[in-house]
Specification:
By secondary structure, the chain is mainly α. The protein has eight helices and four strands. The strands form two sheets. It has a two-stranded antiparallel sheet. The radius of gyration is 16 Å and the shape is globular. It starts with a helix and ends in a 14-residue tail after the last helix. Residues 182-186 have low confidence and may be disordered.
Length: 186
């Protein structure tokens, strides 16, 4: 049932947000010369797919989990995108083409072995990855693999239409946060 809502909401979202999408793309071109960030992620049944987001870090940043990236790599415009969660907007394409859901476990990188192992053990890869979910609204990120995988599994077990809409609403209204970025110690 949520697949119908995923398709409908992502299509409507892309249409309604197209002026914002175009504006952010233009600013992103000026900011980094490359407004979109594409990265291979672990999808449903551990199959790879290409996740697309607005670029928030310099193009030469290493392809690592966000909590392992340097805060210095985030551009000022990227910081704005992260704070407002607008960097996630292009993922509506991933939802529209059936590679992601609006609600589900955040897709990880293939080099996040501990998280992949924990998620495999708990059956998390049986569902589509999502833009938001229980972990995100509770500020649980990929730096705590066991906690994240457990929270993802709990969300999957309890997911119904009511919680699907609640996670989306809480994310849109600013509850939770994205993956933290390590800060440079002085």
């Amino acid at each position: 049932m949520t697949q119908v809502f995923d398709f409908m909401f992502s299509l409507i979202g892309l249409i309604l947000a197209s002026p914002i999408f175009l504006l952010l793309t233009a600013i992103g071109l000026l900011d980094t010369g490359s407004p979109f960030f594409r990265q291979q992620r672990v999808g449903q049944f551990q199959k790879p797919f290409v996740l697309i987001k607005f670029r928030t870090m310099t193009p030469d940043t290493a392809s690592v989990a966000t909590h392992l990236a340097s805060a210095d790599a985030v551009t000022p415009f990227g910081s704005f995108l992260r704070r407002t969660k607008l960097d996630e907007l292009p993922q509506l394409w991933n939802v529209l083409n059936g590679k992601m859901s609006l609600v589900g476990p955040r897709p990880c990188l293939f080099n996040q072995h501990e998280l992949i192992q924990e998620r495999s053990r708990r059956g998390v890869f049986e569902v589509l990855p999502g833009i938001t979910g229980l972990a995100q609204i509770n500020k649980i990120d990929m730096s705590t693999p066991e906690l994240l995988a457990g929270t993802d599994a709990e969300m999957i077990r309890r997911l119904n239409l009511s919680s699907y809409f609640r996670y989306i609403l809480l994310s849109i209204t600013g509850k939770g946060s994205g993956d933290r970025i390590k800060t440079v110690e002085l």
